[in-house]
Amino acid sequence: MSVPQGNLWQILRSQALDSVPAGCRCPPGSPPTLESWLRSGAYSVQSASKKIVTIEAPIEDVGALLFAEAGLLLDHAQEHAIQARHHLAGGRWASPAWSVVTVYYWSYYLVMAITRMIGEAPWFLSRAEALLLSGLSPGDGKVGPGLRVLTCRPAISATMRVVELRQSSQTRVHDAVWRTWFGFLRPHVTALVEQKLNTAELRLYLPQVKAANAIGDSWPSDLRNLVNYVPGLAYGAARGRVSTSAYSGLSAARSETTDAIIGRLESAAAALSGSEPLRSQLVSAARTLTSMTIVLDLIANALFDEVASRHGLDRRWVGARSALRSSQWAEFDGLQWPVDVDAA
Hints:
By secondary structure, the protein is of the alpha+beta class.
């Protein structure tokens, strides 16, 4: 079974194909990034203030940098997925607490890649970048550093579009990334629930929204912070206490079907309670994170491949990750892990 492709998938795909149009040049050897675009891109600042910067830029340039950054972030995620499998297959003790952190970063980079592709990308604007935009703005508009959300607005001509850098209500990029993703999902999932459409697709996304509704839209980041930074809470192996593990239920030796992973996500998310603090639900939260990460891996890579294929973009982005995965999976039976998308 592949990623269920119903109404919500069409929305994701439509936004991604609009944000990353055909004709984008994004060579893997010298990829454009948001940082390099600000320094040398062909854009003009239309207005600037503390809260919002409005930029007019070529559609293809904006698409190229969003696609390239998504590809780079999927590279990040791939390395964490490889690390997780080798932890599982190593035959040696691995910290249960650190497994949560590994899976967290795997998921975090996946969501960053998705938000890049759909043109709703949290981005921390440095002081140097803020000064640059201030200098390019008309009038005396002053741009301050800090967390922004880059949003692609509809094209204003056949070649140009408006991009907004809007000040975020969040101060931490990690929180903003998760809030952007769950904020995007919530109204669309609600519409699916109300219309009772495409139950296979609903099972993919509804548990993600239910988890966020129960323990907050920044819960994966909150979980990572609790596990990694609260002394004695999760790193208790020396004292015989294991409070959580993200690898529970995963196997390094075999792949599962998409349906099995979605079922595990549904069960894990259903165990989360909005009436209890997150720190008392570390086991359920870690299990939810793991299953959600695997689902996000399917979604992010399917979306990237869809954009690359439909718009004839550089396939070396996909090929390089495939080659790395194959080389690392050589010792295992089969190349698909943790989900075999071809299985029924």
